[in-house]
Specification:
By secondary structure, this protein is of the alpha/beta class. The strands form four sheets. It has an eight-stranded mixed sheet with strand order 1-2-12-11-10-6-4-5, with helices on both faces. Helix 5 packs parallel to helix 9, helix 15 runs antiparallel to helix 16 and helix 19 runs antiparallel to helix 20. The N and C termini lie far apart (about 90 Å). About 15% of the residues have low confidence.
Length: about 700
């Protein structure tokens, strides 16, 4: 036994191995009653007191550690009679109840594989699944019930919400569900294979009923499927065989058939059926299993929960799990993000491996790292974590694994072919176009969903044009090359509506064209772009906020106040930092309307949010704004407000903010008649502003110095 809290193996039974005898004749006679069968099997297994005491001690150790107990059965390949027993029906020697029907004690059949296939853990929720449904037209010929392909597909989609599901069936997109069609689909690379078909054991061989081109049945031997799966470059991590006899025939010393043999071929986990399971039981079991699996990726735990869901059915014991992982972990949950945090993944896709591309990749990495660090100060709730792909020459498949494992959003560079675009489409998902407000590196969509590749297959060319021109345009914005950026954004707009993201993509381009227009002084054009972005994507706080900023510059304080209020109303409950920034702008709009009291109310609310979150830069900005209003009103607290703002700006190295706070403090001192102290403050502010090259602010400070005489 391996202790759960330390990972140390301990021996539970000393001395020679105990000998356990099973009466196969009696067990076979009880085969129609799984509870009686389980009682007889348990009585034989725990008849030896050393076995019983070892099991009880294992239970005590697990419970003492607050963990569940994993029971892994390992059979000698020659011990087929033992492997064919119904171990799932075992009873608890302490209480007499069913043993493996809860998360407290879970069962798997451990399989050693001669194939050194590593367990490449993908992230749950971002899995790709292939559902294969074989429903030939002539099943009645074999006294087999028909399979409702549409119902099976609907159940699978409901259970696999958040994952990517491709259905292979005649009712969807395939002339015939043959072995060749199934293997051709598997060559695309899926994390999970779910096969729904009829199965039989004839003689000592297992067969699966697939389809011919004419819709009639064809019985495929298990060794053909095993060989085809073994030949795959990328095997699924989990195979679910909702197929009768796929785990063998109960109580008959049949050869190890499809499920265990697939596990030996390098599959991490395989679930098969030990007999003729009913379609109702199989459907309930599998849908429960899939939903549970998406919680944490632990297959034996999900198996226990799924078995508990079918306990009232007579064939509840039939699903059997064959596992290569000792801890049951075949998929992983992505590492947790801080509230509001987004991960950024740089993709050096195929076609960027030349020397020039390599040098540019390094430069871009450095720029991203600096930008991410800057955002920790300027926009903490959107603070990104840069997930760096270790090898710039990584293949598309290797990059895909890194991205899915980290639930990464994408910064895409080097989209030179449809393969790269297909990857971007798959990973970005339906939320493409969501960008950070304010300054910061853009991200093409938080990882809140995935767009099935099939839905975008006809739009890869437009997607390539849109993504490449948009991302290059945004890179040029960051580098300050705004004229060239505007040209690329115009090109992106031309393909945005034809891309898989339609209005959302066009809204994104209009937003960033508006930002370029705002910076370059084309204020009217910027306002038109923000208006258009909101037409295409209503209730978008980013665009609404920037529209308010432009309106305020144009003198439309009333309209600006409405825009800021609308943006605030559209924010989610967790976006407190964005709320603080918008409240600050709302305060400025109210001040422009001649409402200083209302402005102070908004600014103090923003300050309270900044203080609660501990964001020093945000606190300093709000203090500076409040100080300006209080100075104009000659309030005694104005001087203290500027001093606090200056201290905060200095602590975070924000020199421009420090200079403005020093100038505000100096102006307050001048109002109070402290001319010498005011002159010193102005001079300190001017030294900083001159070093920064802020000409307009330098001229304003010089004018203040001149008025001092």
């Amino acid at each position: 036994m391996r202790r759960p809290e330390t990972g140390v193996d301990i021996q539970l039974i000393d001395g020679p191995a105990p000998i356990v005898r099973f009466n196969e004749t009696n067990l076979r006679a009880a085969s129609l009653n799984p509870d009686t069968y389980g009682e007889m099997l348990s009585a034989s297994l725990f008849a030896d007191q050393r076995v019983r005491q070892a099991f009880l001690r294992a239970c005590d150790i697990a419970e003492g550690a607050g963990r569940g107990l994993r029971v892994c059965l390992r059979f000698d390949p020659e011990a087929q009679a033992l492997a064919s027993l119904r171990w799932e029906t075992l009873r608890d020697p302490r209480y007499g109840g069913r043993l493996f029907t809860s998360e407290r004690i879970i069962l798997s059949r451990y399989v050693e594989s001669p194939i050194p296939a590593p367990l490449d853990l993908q992230a749950v929720g971002t899995l790709s699944a292939l559902l294969v449904i074989a429903a030939p037209d002539d099943l009645a010929r074999y006294n087999l019930i028909p399979i409702d392909s549409a119902a099976v597909a609907a159940q699978a989609r409901g259970a696999l919400q958040g994952a990517s599901l491709y259905v292979l069936s005649r009712s969807s997109n395939t002339p015939a569900v043959s072995l060749a069609a199934m293997m051709l689909a598997l060559h695309e690379g899926y994390d999970l294979l779910y096969l729904v078909a009829h199965g039989r054991i004839i003689g000592k061989k297992a067969y699966v009923c697939l389809e011919r081109a004419d819709g009639q049945s064809t019985w495929v031997a298990d060794h053909q499927i095993i060989q085809a799966v073994t030949d795959l470059a990328r095997r699924p991590a989990l195979v679910i065989l909702s197929t009768c006899f796929s785990a063998g025939m109960p109580d008959v010393a049949a050869p190890m058939v499809l499920a265990p043999q697939l596990a030996r071929s390098g599959i991490a986990a395989v679930i098969g059926m030990q007999g003729p399971i009913s379609s109702e039981t199989a459907a309930l079991f599998t849908t429960t299993l899939l939903r549970e699996l998406l919680r944490d990726g632990v297959v034996d735990r999900a198996m226990a929960v799924a078995r508990s869901a079918i306990l009232e059915r007579p064939d509840w014991w039939q699903p059997a799990l064959f596992l290569r992982s000792s801890d049951g972990q075949i998929f992983v949950k992505p590492a947790a993000l801080e509230p509001g945090q987004t991960r950024v993944l740089l993709l050096p896709l195929a076609g960027c491996g030349d020397s020039a591309g390599g040098r540019f990749d390094q430069e871009l990495y450095s720029q991203l790292e600096m930008r991410c660090e800057a955002l920790r100060v300027s926009w903490p709730p959107r603070c990104p974590k840069l997930v760096r792909v270790p090898d710039r020459a990584a293949t598309v498949e290797e990059v895909r694994k890194v991205g899915l494992r980290h639930s990464a959003a994408l910064v895409v560079w080097g989209l030179r072919d449809d393969t790269g675009v297909a990857l971007a489409v798959e990973m970005v998902g339906a939320g493409a176009g969501e960008l950070w407000p304010g300054e910061g590196w853009p991200v093409l969509g938080p990882a809140t969903g995935r767009l099935p590749l099939a839905a975008a297959a006809g739009n890869l060319t437009s997607a390539a044009a849109y993504l490449a021109t948009l991302v290059l345009g945004l890179l040029l914005i960051q580098q300050g090359q705004l004229t060239q950026a505007r040209k690329l954004l115009d090109l992106a707009l031309a393909t945005a509506l034809a891309s898989p993201w339609g209005n959302s993509a066009a809204a994104t381009v209009h937003y960033w064209r508006g930002m370029v227009g705002w910076v370059t002084g084309e204020v009217a054009g910027a306002l038109a772009d923000f208006d258009r972005a909101l037409e295409l994507r209503p209730s978008w706080p980013c665009a609404e906020a920037q529209r308010g900023v432009v309106l305020l510059r144009l003198g439309g304080a009333d309209a600006a106040q409405e825009a800021f209020a609308a943006a605030i109303a559209e924010l989610g409950p967790g976006e407190q930092q964005a709320r603080a920034a918008l409240l600050g702008n709302l305060g400025l709009a109210r001040l422009a309307q001649g409402q200083p009291e209302a402005a102070l109310s908004a600014l103090h609310e923003a300050l309270a949010i900044e203080e609660a979150s501990g964001t020093l830069g945000g606190q300093a900005r709000q203090l500076l704004r409040i100080g300006e209003i209080e100075r104009a009103r000659r309030a005694p607290q104005a001087l203290q407000l500027f001093e606090r703002a200056a201290q905060l700006f200095q602590s975070i190295g924000a020199e421009r903010g420090l200079a403005l706070a020093l100038a505000g403090k100096a102006q307050t001192l001048a109002q109070e008649g402290q001319v010498v102290a005011a002159r010193t403050g102005y001079e300190e502010a001017m030294v900083i502003l001159e070093r920064l090259g802020a000409r307009a602010e330098v001229a304003a400070v010089r004018e203040q110095l001149r008025t001092l005489g």
